Amino acid sequence: MPRRAAREEGHPIGVSLFLPSGKGLLDTGLWTSDRNRPAELAREKPRATPATTVATLVESAARAGTEIPIQPLDELADDVLRGIQAGEYCLMLGRDAAAATLRERAERFSVGLNPTQAGHTLLPV
After folding, report:
1. CB-count exposure of residue 91 (10 Å: 0-12, 13-18, 19+)
2. What was the pLDDT predicted at 13?
3. What are the pLDDT digits (tens) for 91-106?
4. 35: how many CB neighbours lie within 10 A of its CB?
5. Which 3-state string (H, E, C) describes the chain?
6. What is the pLDDT of residues 5-25, one digit of tens each?
7. What average pLDDT score do residues 64-72 get?
8. Cα 20-84-31 angle, rounded to 5 deg
9. What gap in Å lies between CA 66 and CA 108, rounded to an integer?
10. Mean pLDDT of 19-43
11. CA distances from 114 to 5, 47, 55, 76, 90 (A)
12. Residue 125 pLDDT more than 50?
C-alpha cells in the first residue's frame, strides 16, 4: 500500500531511504557478518585468509601512511532519527552538498555531456 494511501486510511506508516554517508568508514560489523552464518549455510570453500575487518583495514592503511576516518555511528543514528521524526524521505549526512552535485550532473546530462567527471563523487572533498 503506497504511503499516501496508508496515511489517508489512518495507518501511521512512513518510508525513508537511508543512504549511509558521513565523514568516513562505517564500523557496523557488516564486514564480519560471517560470525552469524548458520552452519547449514557454511561456505563450500573455506576462506584461505582471515576476513578483512574494519580494524585490519585501518591498520593496513596506517602502515601505508593513509588514515581512514571512521564515521561516528551515533551521529548517523541521531540524524536518521531526526529525519524520520521530520517525515523526510532521503536520510543522509551532507544531503545539501549531494543535492548540489546531483543538480550539476542532471544539468550536464540534459545537454548531452557525461554527467560525471573523474574523481567526482557525492562526498564532500
Report:
1. buried
2. 81
3. 998 888 888 888 999 9
4. 7
5. CCHHHHHHCCCCCCCCEECCCCCCECCCCHHHHHHHCCHHHCCCCCCCCCCCCHHHHHHHHHHCCCCCCECCHHHHHHHHHHHHHCCCCEECCCHHHHHHHHHHHHHHHHCCCCCCCCCCCCCCC
6. 777 888 878 889 998 887 889
7. 93
8. 25
9. 33
10. 85
11. 38, 40, 37, 32, 25
12. no
Q: What confidence tier does 65 reach under pLDDT thresholds 50, 70, 90?
A: very high
Tell me the C-alpha to C-alpha distance, in Å, between residue 112 and each of 26, 107, 116, 119.
Answer: 36, 9, 12, 20
CA distance 80 to 29: 19
pLDDT at residue 29, as a whole number: 84
Cβ atoms 68, 24 nearer than 8 A: yes
The distance of Cα 25 from the centroid of its chain, to the nearest Å, equals: 9
Residues 6 or more apart whose CB falls under 8 angstroms from that of 14 comprise: 3, 84, 87
Lookup: cell for 10? 489512518
Could you identify the residue written with the cell 575487518?
53
Q: How far apart are CA 47 and CA 4, in angstroms?
A: 47
